[in-house]
């Protein structure tokens, strides 16, 4: 059987939150066999940006102790670094929402941004994030930009026309762990007909955490947004994988392919 398929299936079994004692016993048996192809498994996990989640999934099932030393150190260290990064991103997000609220704006949090405040994984370190995606009502975008610039942000230098994209140029600030992308639409222009931004706003639910007020997409819309973005990224991964020497180079290559530039943050 195809080794890639077996590795992919193993990762999925580790990631799923739905399992019983029999599933844990099966994974434990696989982990304790000689010759576990960790290089393959980690390469696949890196390809799909789920390596921190792999550690989180194994730990939630009590299986981290049976990993071999090298795999344990790699997965644990990567998760720890990602947890630190996402913790800082969460603080940065709350500050940004508070700034927008003060300006009379209640934003809608897209993708990973929403999961930083309403985690679906019980572990904010399990998801790799590159930025904070925030949807703003069209008429309030100028006020949102001004408010964040007053907090020390500036627009990143980009070599593409942001008017043709569904988001503005990234807003960056020295010392932060990631840029903020203010969105005028939730999805890329070419696929926005699948889920119009107007419909996302109509069905969004309001929430308040740590004194900041924001909207979240409905559960159905959250899934659709993730699926559509996953399709776009998967197409890009397939198109550029052969040009990357290692799977660790994929995030930078995808960023460059999506925007035509390399992130300055």
Give the helix/strand layout.
Elements: H1 3-15, H2 21-32, H3 38-47, H4 51-60, H5 69-102, E1 108-109, H6 112-117, E2 132-135, H7 141-150, E3 154-155, E4 171-172, E5 180-183, H8 197-203, E6 205-209, E7 212-216, H9 219-240, H10 250-259
Parallel strand pairs: 2-5
Antiparallel strand pairs: 1-2, 3-4, 6-7
Q: Would you write up a description of this structure?
A:
- It is a single chain.
- By secondary structure, the chain is mainly alpha-helical.
- It folds into two domains: 1-67; 88-259, Beta Polymerase, domain 2.
- The chain contains ten helices and seven strands.
- It has a three-stranded mixed beta sheet with strand order 1-2-5. A two-stranded antiparallel ribbon has the order 3-4.
- Strand 6 and strand 7 (212-216) form a beta hairpin.
- Helix 1 (3-15) packs across helix 3 (38-47).
- The longest helix has 34 residues, at 69-102.
- The model is unreliable at 246-251 and 257-265 (pLDDT under 50).
Give short descriptive properties of this protein:
single chain; 51% helix; three-stranded mixed beta sheet; 2 domains; mainly alpha; 9% strand; two-stranded antiparallel sheet; Beta Polymerase, domain 2; elongated; 265 residues; 7 strands
């Amino acid at each position: 059987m195809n080794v890639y398929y077996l590795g992919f299936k193993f990762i999925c079994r580790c990631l799923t939150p739905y399992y019983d004692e029999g599933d844990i016993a099966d994974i434990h048996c696989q982990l304790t066999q000689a010759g576990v192809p960790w290089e393959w498994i980690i390469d696949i996990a890196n390809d799909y940006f789920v390596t921190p989640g792999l550690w989180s999934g194994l730990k939630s099932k009590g299986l981290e102790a049976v990993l071999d030393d090298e795999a344990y150190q790699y997965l644990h260290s990567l998760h720890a670094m990602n947890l630190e990064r996402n913790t800082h991103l969460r603080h940065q997000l709350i500050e940004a929402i508070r700034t927008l609220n003060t300006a009379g704006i209640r934003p809608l949090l897209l993708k990973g941004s929403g999961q930083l405040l309403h985690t679906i994984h019980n572990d904010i370190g399990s998801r790799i994030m590159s930025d904070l995606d925030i949807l703003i009502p069209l008429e309030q975008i100028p006020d949102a930009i001004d408010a964040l610039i007053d907090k020390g942000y500036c627009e990143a230098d980009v070599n593409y026309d942001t008017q043709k994209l569904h988001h503005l140029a990234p807003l960056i600030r020295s010392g932060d762990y990631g840029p903020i992308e203010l969105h005028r639409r939730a999805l890329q222009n070419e696929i926005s007909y699948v889920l119009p931004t107007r419909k996302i706003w109509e069905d969004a639910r309001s929430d308040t955490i740590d004194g900041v007020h924001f909207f979240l997409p409905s559960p159905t819309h959250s899934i659709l947004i993730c699926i559509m973005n996953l399709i776009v990224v998967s197409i890009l991964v397939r198109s550029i994988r052969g040009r990357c020497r290692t799977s660790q180079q994929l995030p930078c290559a995808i960023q460059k392919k999506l925007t035509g530039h390399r992130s300055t943050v």
